Amino acid sequence: MRTLLALALILTALPSFASVNEGYRVGRWEVSLNPGVAIPLGATSDEMSNSGVVQLVAGYQFNEYLNFGAELGWQFNHRWGGQTAGQFAQDFDKDGIDDRAPFSSNIHEKILGLSPAVKLGQWVDVLSYKFRPYLTMSAGFYHAWTNSGTTVVQGNDQISGKLVGPIITTYDTSSNSYFGFSGGGGLDILVDENAAVGFDLRYSRITKPYEDLEFLTPSLRISYLF
């Protein structure tokens, strides 16, 4: 009961313009800007840092539940570094086992994604406010760039405990295209007939020849509906 009362007080404190009678409209467009952070998962987290990300999403409301369109995403600053794994895996001490040693670099990877996207959700009324929980899926084209630079492997191998390095490797600038997909969900809150805010959380996977890249991306969501 206390939880419900607290929720009611919070909603009451929202600006009065949030209480509107507008929900979905069939034939309506929606454009969203989603700033957030791309967090590497699994083996990807061993090789690169978090990066800021900005997504631009546009979709058309076909019916009460289905919104279909496209999204453009830009991960702009993954710095290479962490533990030697995936593309950086090597047997430095020649014992027949790939080592896991610390490495750093001055190389950054940038990733641009472009794909069609499906969004499934329905506006619901709660205490005179409109909310839309939703699921989203996309699959398409990803392009990755890296600048030229060096990696430096130096430290104790986590497997054997032996000291490795320093081993310096030079990389040229690279630019390659891949297939990828993402899926997740979020929540929209209508604050005006033509505006909504909310949050989005999704998992994405980019297929590369040597290994797949995996990310978890939480972001804010600012939408214009027209």
The CATH architecture classification is Beta Barrel
Work out the count of structural domains.
1
What is the CATH third-level topology name? Porin
> Main sheet, how many strands, which sense, barrel?
8 strands, antiparallel, barrel
- The gyration radius over C-alpha positions equals 22 Å
How many strand units? 13
Mean pLDDT value: 86
Distance between the termini: 38 Å
* Strands ordered across the widest β-sheet: 1-2-3-6-8-11-12-13
Outline:
The chain is mainly beta. It is 5% helix and 62% strand. The protein has one helix at residues 2-13; strands at 29-40, 51-61, 66-79, 82-83, 102-105, 108-121, 124-126, 129-146, 149-156, 163-171, 174-192, 195-206, 213-225.
Outline the structure in words:
With 226 residues, the chain is mainly beta. It has a single domain (2-225), classed as Porin, CATH 2.40.160. The chain contains one helix and 13 strands. A hairpin with a 2-residue loop joins β11 and β12 (195-206). The longest helix has 12 residues, at 2-13. The two termini are 38 Å apart. Residues 3-23 have low confidence and may be disordered.
Overview features:
5% helix, four-stranded antiparallel beta sheet, single chain, mainly beta, elongated, Porin, disordered N terminus, eight-stranded antiparallel barrel, 1 helix, 62% strand, 226 residues
